[in-house]
Amino acid sequence: MNSFMRIFLTISSEFCNFVPEMDVTKEIISNFQFTGIVVMLWLTLMLAFMKLRRTAQDHMLHKTRWLMASGTIVLAMQFLLQYTLRLRDMGQTQALMLNLLMFVPAAWLISCAVLYLQRQGRLSLSEWMVGGVTWVSVTILIVAASLAGDGPFFCDTPLMRLMEHISAVVYFAGQAYYVFKELAELGRMRQSLKNYYDHDKAGLLRWMTVSIWTLALMGCVVPVVIVIPGPLMFVLGLFVLGGIGYLVVSFRDYVIGKGAYQVMEAQNNDREAGIGGDNGSITAISAGDSQRVERTIRQWLAKGRYLQQSITMPVVVSEMGISQQLLRSWLRAAGYESYADWMQQLRIEHAKQLLKQHPEYSIEHIAEACGFRNRSYFHTVFRQVTGMTPAQYLEI
Q: How far is CA 115 from the centre of its chain?
């Protein structure tokens, strides 16, 4: 990830040196298009030569990376055609036409790759087809406008410009559909993590959040990038290159760094327990069940097991002898957002007792004794829960 950012920033700074008095020349546009070819080919090769672990999920991850690679190679072809045909020299219509015809399928493939990754390969036919229908619709609009004109094919006419504007709206609508689906799935993934691990793992999905919103912005930006004159076109072009690059490199780090496998473990746990990641299947708990769960929890807490690091919910319910559905229903009724939230509250309460009873203990010792991975994470959680630092709490 860091290597990509260094290369991208170097390219950006080199291009900026070519911009005299904020005037982007045809030579700079040509150089930028060539850079786009190189970057997209590099990203494609990066995806092609990824080394995956030998697990049951590898088939899904393989398909995800090839969907992404298909999108990046289409973008490489777009930059190649823009570079070799010099469409910018012909006018705005020709360049925008190619921009739409090539970027729509690229965005479709990359968006499907993200959703495919989130769903672990469980996409409906309609979800696959939305991008295809968008692409076909855009192609029909542009070709029909060309055939209806009196001039050469794909020439610049008022009708063609109108159809390109309509096509841009169609593309934006298709992209908005995928963004909506991806954001909904992202919420379920976060909830799965919170109800499986005993500490916050939201950082595993931060790259996905940024990437989804980047794709959403591209739905607004890409149709107009090619027709914007001057430095703004160059800046927006860098945004497109940087956004796609960030998504691909982050996906690679997500898989190689085992983040994908940790997320899938939490998702599979929800599926096996018959619980949706958004807790939609959790029902209200009865008074009798609530009392029984509370007795069970008190017995389990007395053993101090909640102070053990990295104890997942399946382990906890196994030790308690109750089901995940029952514990989650109790947590919801008790006002806890998730299993991780409950565990953090328990540990912080224990940490507050240790701080008062043993002020001579170091923060590192208290963090370890309370089940936190390190001092930094303990300090962060303590402040989130209490609104103050451990040192400030001691002064009360």
A: 9
